[in-house]
Design brief:
The chain is α+β, with helices and mostly antiparallel strands. The chain contains 16 helices and 21 strands. The strands form 5 sheets. A 7-stranded mixed β-sheet has the order 8-9-10-1-11-19-12. The protein has a 6-stranded mixed β-sheet with strand order 14-18-13-17-15-16. The longest helix is centred in the last third of the chain and has 17 residues, at 481-497. It is globular, with a radius of gyration of 23 Å. 51% of the residues are buried.
Length: 536
């Protein structure tokens, strides 16, 4: 199924390719051409849409936060590192406050200074509704990703302070998602719509050409403040291509050098043709998130939630995907230090699933009927249509009767930001949405604390578990790293035993590229560093 918007996006791109505007011969040397899964070019204002794929390509390469991700390692989960702030600490007298010391000498792409005034101006963009620069779409995303900003103030030209509603040990981990744009460039352009045409951030790349619905060109920022990370590439050109077959054809024909999410059935032939398939184990979940607020949802019964987790043939789905995914038995992977030892050790056990459903009053004559919202494509969604069709057939053997509400990616993101009982949810019993929240404790808490239901936070299922909340509270107040890790394990055990999700697979973040692409290493993160990449 292809959405109307997808058709609108692909047609201008096809015309551009046909005219040779992005032909390989014209972009030899240091230009990398990438086909994204996004259905449109993500917004270029420093508050990218199109999910976290938008942040991956039109976020960190161009704009930065006070805190960034360390994306150098391939053998362990990415951790945070200093970004536009050199260091930070909790206030010694009030643990609900954090002090950030800003990096000196940083310039925006337009040559203006990044300092405390620029930082406060950007925070007003996200949180102060009567500010001239207030950005309703960007503010909605920022507040959903970080609902714990109760206040902020300038201390001096190079220092700012945040106030949280309560002590939060993991608050710095939430700041990579809030990016900073040039106030001077906004004043020059007059609006976010005009700013988007000539954006200005502080990142290693700067946007030099923007073609709505077609492409965006990023060029090396030779004046980048972190000299060791000045990009090797001259340019990156990003194209939205939501259809997997379109991306595949573009790669094979030489119209692009790199595609996100290659079709699994094409992997053997791509390898035979000399293309590289790059993947890594990383913190990205592909679940069904249950609607626990809907009064007639069968998933309100924990026996049904356990049963469906025992019915899924995860290994069969991984085989269908040619190994481009890993079985998921919780939010974290079993090899992760945070997995713990939950009581529920999910395996493919249809007999156990049927027994649980019988206990809950279901059987061959009374199957569990549930409607699932799925997307046609989207950031991290892998191949949602064939994967969900596989699950639909798989779950029949345990007496689940699954139907689908198929929407485009933008519609699903709107549903995620609204309560599951709202009209945007379209009456579904669950949502299949890819989530990267196993990167760190801040996202684990944001998506699952009882008090973080939409529109305030990201707990779309409206899952409520008092024991989980209590463990997270201990984490928030702690300053002992070992105690924090032990409590994360405990929280994850609760999450698995009282599951608000159907745990299906972890994506392996696969991408296919020509052998001319050099220098890329796949970090254990949803985000990636493009600065070491170059074209042979």
């Amino acid at each position: 199924m292809t959405s109307t918007r997808t058709k609108q996006v692909c047609m201008p791109l096809a015309a551009a390719l046909a005219l040779g505007l992005v032909a390989g011969s014209a972009l030899a040397g240091g230009t990398l051409r990438v086909a994204m899964t996004a259905s449109d070019v993500p917004t270029t204002t420093g508050a990218p849409d199109n999910g976290y794929e938008g942040v991956r390509f039109l976020g960190y390469p161009v704009f930065e936060g006070l805190v960034l991700w360390d994306l150098k390692r391939t053998d362990k989960l990415a951790d945070i590192r200093p970004g536009l702030a050199e260091r930070w600490e909790q206030d010694a007298n009030d643990k609900a406050k954090w002090i950030f010391h800003l990096r000196k000498g940083v310039k925006f792409h337009d040559g203006s200074d990044f300092n405390a005034d620029a930082a406060i101006w950007n925070l007003d963009r996200y949180f102060k509704k009567d500010a001239k620069q207030f950005d309703p779409p960007g503010g909605a995303v920022a507040q959903a990703r970080n609902p714990f900003v109760a206040g902020y103030r300038k201390i001096d030209d190079n220092t700012i302070e945040f106030t949280n509603p309560r002590p939060l040990s993991y608050f710095p981990n939430m700041l990579p998602y809030m990016l900073y744009s040039s106030p001077a460039q906004f004043e020059k352009t007059g609006s976010w719509a005009e700013f988007a045409k000539s954006p200005s951030g502080t990142g290693p790349f700067k946007i030099t050409e923007f073609k709505p619905r077609v492409s965006v060109t990023l060029s090396r920022n030779d004046a980048y403040w972190e000299k060791a990370r000045v990009p090797k590439l001259d340019r990156m050109v990003l194209f939205p291509m939501p259809e997997a077959t379109t991306r595949l054809a573009a790669l094979r024909s030489g119209q692009v050098d790199w595609i996100e999410v290659p079709p699994p059935d094409a992997v053997p032939s791509l390898k035979s043709a000399g293309f590289n398939i790059v993947a890594n184990s990383y913190p990205h979940s592909w679940p069904w998130t249950f609607n626990l607020a809907k009064e007639d949802s069968p998933f309100r019964d924990i026996r049904v939630r356990h049963a469906i987790n025992f019915c899924v043939n995860r290994d069969g789905l991984v085989t269908l995907l040619n190994g481009l995914a890993e079985p998921a038995y919780g939010l974290f992977k079993k090899a992760d230090p945070f997995f713990g030892n939950p009581k529920q050790q999910y395996t493919y056990d249809p007999a156990k699933a049927q027994a649980l459903l019988k206990e809950a009053g279901y059987g061959p004559d009374k199957p569990v009927k549930a409607k699932i919202m799925i997307s046609t494509s989207g950031s991290g969604q892998m191949l949602p249509i064939p994967m969900n069709e596989y699950l639909q057939q798989n779950l029949k053997e345990c007496n689940f009767d699954i139907s689908f509400e198929v929407v485009d990616w933008g519609t699903m993101l709107v549903a995620l930001r609204n309560p599951p009982t709202a009209s945007q949810a379209l009456g579904v019993d669950a949502m299949n949405i890819s989530l990267h929240i196993s990167m760190d404790i801040s996202q684990f808490a944001l998506f699952n604390l009882s008090g973080n239901a939409p529109p305030k936070g990201r707990n779309w299922p409206n899952w409520k578990n008092a024991e989980f909340d209590a463990v997270i509270e201990r984490i928030e107040k702690s300053t002992d790293p070992e105690e924090i890790v032990a409590n994360i394990r405990k929280a994850h055990e609760i999450f698995v035993d009282d599951p608000p999700w159907l745990f299906i697979v972890h994506d392996r973040n696969a991408r296919a590229m020509t052998k001319k692409v050099k220098g890329f290493t796949s970090a254990q993160s949803w985000f990636q560093d493009f600065t070491p990449v170059y074209m042979e």
